[in-house]
Amino acid sequence: MIIVLLGPPASGKGTFAQTLVDHHGWIVFSAGQALRDMAAGKSPRAKKLAAFLKRGKLVPNAMVAHLEDDFFRAHHNKKVLLDGTPRNVSQARAMEKVLKKFKSSFTAFLFFDATEKVSWERIRARVQCEKCHRIYGLQIKPKKKGICNACGGKLIRRKDDTKGVLHDRFRVYQRETLPLVEWAAQRYPVFYINANRSPQSALKQAKTALSILE
C-alpha cells in the first residue's frame, strides 16, 4: 500500500505520517527531509540543491527521481507514506514509472487543505530534532523543553521556517501541486482533509480515510 500525502507546508501531513510510523508500522519517505540531508553535503550538486531549498523553489525532478528510485528499490512491498512527493503532475507520472518497475502503484492520495495563515501559525511553533528529524509543534510537544522525546537530541528551528519562504512555497504549491490533486482524482481515490481545523481533527479525518482503504 502506497499513500501519497499532499498539502501545503505545516498542514499536518508530517504529524499524520509520524503517528503511523510510531504506532502502526508504516514507513515514511519524506522528500523534503531527504533533500535537506543531501543539501547538507559539500558537493556541487549539494550546493545547488541548497540554493533551491533556501529560495523555497521546487527541486528539479531529476534530483527527486534519483532519491525515489533508491527508496522504492528497498521498500516497494511495504506500507509506505509519501510525504512531500510527488509535488506536481510531472513527478507523479515519473513515479508511476518507477513503481511499475517494482510491480506496484499508488493506492490513494490524502489532500490536507490549509490556508497560508494557518500554516504560518503552526510553523511559528514548530521545532525539529537535529538528530532524528522528529517534529514537535502545537500537537506533539517534547516532555523536556528543547530535548527530543525519542533520541534526546537538541530541538532546533529549521533555517527555512520563515514567513517569506512560506509565502514563496504557497505560490509554488498553488501553481504546481493543486493541479496534481485534480490529476490524481481522475486516476486514484483522493480523500480531502480539512486541515484548517485543529491538528487533532485533521488527524482523525486522515485515520478515517485510511481505515476505508485497509
From TrEMBL:
Domain Adenylate kinase active site lid: 126-160
Intracellular or extracellular location(s): Cytoplasm
Residues the record lists as binding AMP: R36, K57, L58, V59, Q91, R158, R169
Pfam families recorded: ADK (PF00406), ADK_lid (PF05191)
GO MF: AMP kinase activity; ATP binding; zinc ion binding
Any one GO biological process: AMP salvage
Nucleotide-binding as UniProt keyword: yes
Annotated residues for binding of Zn(2+): C129, C132, C148, C151
InterPro entries per record: Adenylat/UMP-CMP_kin, Adenylate_kinase_lid-dom, ADK_active_lid_dom_sf, P-loop_NTPase
UniProt GO cellular component terms: cytoplasm
Residues engaged in binding ATP: A10, S11, G12, K13, G14, T15, R126, I135, Y136, R197
Annotated region described as NMP, given as residue ranges: 30-59
Known pathway: Purine metabolism; AMP biosynthesis via salvage pathway; AMP from ADP: step 1/1
Catalytic activity: AMP + ATP = 2 ADP
EC numbers, comma separated: 2.7.4.3
Keyword annotations from UniProtKB, A to Z: ATP-binding, Cytoplasm, Kinase, Metal-binding, Nucleotide biosynthesis, Nucleotide-binding, Transferase, Zinc
Presence of the UniProt keyword Hydrolase in the record: no
Residue runs in coiled coils: none
Function as written in the Swiss-Prot or TrEMBL entry: Catalyzes the reversible transfer of the terminal phosphate group between ATP and AMP. Plays an important role in cellular energy homeostasis and in adenine nucleotide metabolism.
Family membership noted in the UniProt record: Belongs to the adenylate kinase family.
Entry remark concerning the domains of this protein: Consists of three domains, a large central CORE domain and two small peripheral domains, NMPbind and LID, which undergo movements during catalysis. The LID domain closes over the site of phosphoryl transfer upon ATP binding. Assembling and dissambling the active center during each catalytic cycle provides an effective means to prevent ATP hydrolysis. Some bacteria have evolved a zinc-coordinating structure that stabilizes the LID domain.
Quaternary assembly: Monomer.
Protein name, as recorded: Adenylate kinase
Gene: adk
